[in-house]
From TrEMBL:
It comes from Sphingomonas daechungensis. InterPro entries: HATPase_C_sf, HATPase_dom, His_kinase_dom, HisK_dim/P_dom, HisK_dim/P_sf, PAC, PAS, PAS-assoc_C. It is an enzyme of class 2 (transferase). Its EC number is 2.7.13.3. This is histidine kinase.
């Protein structure tokens, strides 16, 4: 080993001395003298292969990396020519380059070299001329670097880039690689085609100029936020294509980093989603339209549901409450929504009326089978008025006929039932009136002849016994005439002297008469309106009706009480037995024993009486009812046992109110005064004197004007 080193130093020293003599200057190191071993050690440490070629084209110096690369000892290589070491083919390619280097030019080239053992290798060679002090080139310093692996990596990288470009250009999406300054290192063909123009324009285009105005601010903000987040982010919006058409793009961008870990830019891809987006927007529009339609229909349903005049409940087929309207009824639970989610028969309302829970179960079961269930129920509970309900449960079917819901409805028909009862009563009274009117009219004509004949007989018969018989017969006939008059009054076929009459002054003028009739045990109260609205009525018949009602009230208060006379102006808009318009209501109320419901319903019927036999004919209230109806109004009774009775007479207004006038007593017919004290159950009755023949006597005519009536 020592011998080899000495030989290398000797041979290398000769080469170095030769090079030094040729250059005219010695090779020196920092130590001052020529130290070849130190210089050789430095050369062997270099990462590149270094050699020196003299003018004879022989290797005069070579460092260890080059000798190792040739896989031969350095001593074998020193002194060889380039042709001997590299071969003919390599020498042929390098010969002109060596010549140029000896001519003073620096040459750098890369080429392939066929290594004896390793095959084709890639090398980079640098020929640097070595000149002496005169400028003459005395040799060439050769720097060689094996770049085979680097060349392979570069080739692989180029192939990878080529593959990426081919793939990217074949992709139907826009692809790009950006820098931090927003310019692009790469754009694929789809990107260029979308932008329009050449690749350079696509590479430097500012995308913000192509964003749709409606999307611009949003996309810019989302882009800034995505880049700041240093993660993958997605943008979606409309961008203007090169031909001016806006297209929907969905882009995804991810950050890319340099080898040092610093952010270098972004890699992104964008897909044209115009067709899908338009379909999505169209679907969204349809959904919004249908949603709006559903909302509108829901609002309509809810409006109808809430505006319904009956209680409505939407149910599942099993009876579970889904929805309720807010119809308020006195019998209903104050919070209807509390029933939602419960079975109908378990709802708070049904718990308050447990007697109807079985009916609700039956109705729901029947409706769930497809049949409509209807019934009437009475909602009776302590402390609340009784309500009559018309209840129905009906199925709600889908288009295929399957039952999807049940609809429960409960309509309060309490007032309807009362109106129907009132109508039936009115129709019954009308029928009775027509019947009694026909009979009474014919009977009245017969009595007129009888009374007239008996009156003449009593005046002409001298025999006292016969005269007494005739007088008794006349008295009986007169009583029959009174009954006939009452029947005619009830049937409303009597002739009334109707004129504009003020009720309040008329009642006021009757105070002395009422005082005498009622006696000291009855307290009288008057609450008369001051509007002075005239009504169409026969004042005499009104007085008779008032007197009848007052005497009836007196009989109902044998131990005394309070009798109230009240008038007021009312406006009727919708009544079954009254036309719309203005009316004066005259009510006479007592604090007597009152009537039961069955008595109250029959009170106006002719010949119906609760008095003992011989104390009433049952025609008094019938006459009052007939007079009110014939005057264009009606008579009504409100009464309960133990709470007294109130009879109201409605008279149709005949004009506007006038200022009150001082009341002046009006003379009473003599026959009215005579009959007033005859009996506690006698009052006045209407005239029907037009049916008497002109030849009737004065007494017959006087009887025809007689106005007394037996109360029922």
């Amino acid at each position: 080993m020592a011998d080899t080193s000495k030989a290398l130093n000797s041979k290398a020293g000769e080469a170095s001395a030769e090079a030094a003599s040729e250059s005219g200057s010695p090779i020196e190191l920092a130590g001052g003298g020529f130290d070849f071993s130190g210089m050789l050690a430095v050369a062997d440490m270099l990462p590149v292969m270094v050699a020196y070629i003299g003018e004879d084209l022989r290797y005069r110096f070579m460092n260890k990396p080059m000798a190792d690369w040739f896989e031969r000892p350095r001593l074998e290589l020193l002194g060889l020519t380039i042709r001997e070491l590299l071969g003919e083919e390599a020498w042929a390619m390098r010969e002109p380059l060596i010549a140029a280097a000896f001519a003073g030019e620096r040459k750098f080239f890369a080429t392939d070299f066929r290594h004896p053992t390793r095959g084709n290798l890639a090398v980079q060679t640098n020929y640097m001329p070595w000149t002496d002090g005169t400028g003459r080139v005395r040799g060439v310093i050769v720097l060689v670097q094996d770049v085979t692996e680097q060349r392979a990596a570069e080739r692989a990288l180029r192939e990878s880039e080529d593959r990426f470009r081919r793939i990217a250009n074949q992709a139907p999406v826009l692809m790009w690689v950006t820098r931090l300054d927003r310019t692009r290192d790469f754009v694929n063909d789809a990107y260029v085609d979308f932008v329009g123009g050449d690749r350079e324009l696509a590479r430097t285009l500012d995308w913000r100029e192509r964003i749709h105005p409606d999307d611009h601010d949003r996309i810019v903000q989302e882009s800034i936020a995505g880049e700041a987040g240093r993660g993958t982010f997605t943008l979606e919006g409309r961008y203007r294509r090169g031909d001016g058409e806006y297209r929907w793009l969905r882009s995804t961008s991810s950050p890319r980093y340099a080898p040092d870990g610093e952010l270098a830019g972004f890699i992104g891809a964008a897909t044209d989603i115009t067709v899908a987006k338009e379909a999505e927007l169209d679907l969204k529009r349809q959904v919004e339209e249908r949603t709006a339609e559903l909302v509108r229909r829901e609002a309509q349903f809810r409006a109808v549901f809430e505006a319904a005049l009956e209680v409505m409940v939407l149910l599942e087929p099993d009876g579970t409450v889904l929805a309720v309207n807010n119809r308020r009824e006195i019998w209903r639970h104050p919070n209807p929504d509390d029933a939602i989610g419960l079975k109908l028969w378990d709802s708070p309302t049904m718990k308050a009326y447990p007697q109807h829970r079985a009916v609700m179960r039956e109705g729901i079961a029947q409706a769930a089978k497809g049949r409509i269930f209807t019934t009437e129920v009475q909602m009776e509970r302590a402390g609340l008025p009784t309500a009559i309900l018309d209840v129905s449960v009906q199925p709600v079917k889908d288009t295929d006929g399957s039952i999807i819901y049940l609809l429960f409805e409960a309509r309060d028909i309490t007032e309807l039932k009362a109106a129907q009862a009132q109508l039936r009563q009115s129709q019954k009274m009308e029928a009775l009136g027509q019947l009694t009117g026909g009979i009474a009219h014919d009977f009245n004509n017969l009595l007129t002849v009888v009374v007239g004949g008996l009156d003449l007989l009593t005046k002409r018969i001298e025999d006292e016994k016969l005269k007494r018989y005739a007088t008794n017969a006349l008295t009986a006939a007169e009583r029959g005439a009174r009954l006939t008059g009452q029947l005619l009054a009830f049937s409303r076929v009597q002739r009334l002297e109707v004129r504009a009459t003020h009720i309040a002054p008329l009642i006021d003028n009757m105070r002395p008469l009422l005082k005498n009739v009622l006696g000291p045990g009855i307290e009288k109260k008057f609450d008369l309106d001051e509007e002075m609205v005239p009504v169409l009525a026969d004042p005499t018949q009104v007085e008779v009706a008032v007197l009848n009602l007052a005497i009836n009230a007196r009989d109902a208060m044998p131990e005394g009480g309070v009798l109230t006379f009240k008038t007021r102006h009312v406006v009727v808009t919708q009544e079954t037995d009254l036309d719309p318009g203005d009316y004066i209501e005259l009510s006479i109320s007592d604090t007597g024993s009152g009537m039961t419901e069955d008595v109250r319903e029959r009170a106006f019927e002719p010949f119906f009486t609760t008095k003992e036999v011989g104390k009433g004919t049952g025609l008094g209230l019938s006459m009052v009812y007939g007079m009110a109806r014939q005057s264009g109004g009606v008579a009504r009774i409100v009464s309960e046992p133990g709470k007294g009775t109130s009879v109201s007479l409605f008279f149709k207004a005949a004009g506007r109110a006038r200022k009150p006038q001082p009341a002046t007593p009006r003379s009473r017919p003599a026959n009215l005064k005579r009959r007033r004290s005859a009996s506690s159950s006698s009052t006045t009755t209407p005239t029907f004197g037009n049916s008497f023949p002109r030849r009737s006597s004065t007494r017959a005519m006087s009887f025809a004007r007689l106005q007394t009536a037996r109360l029922g």
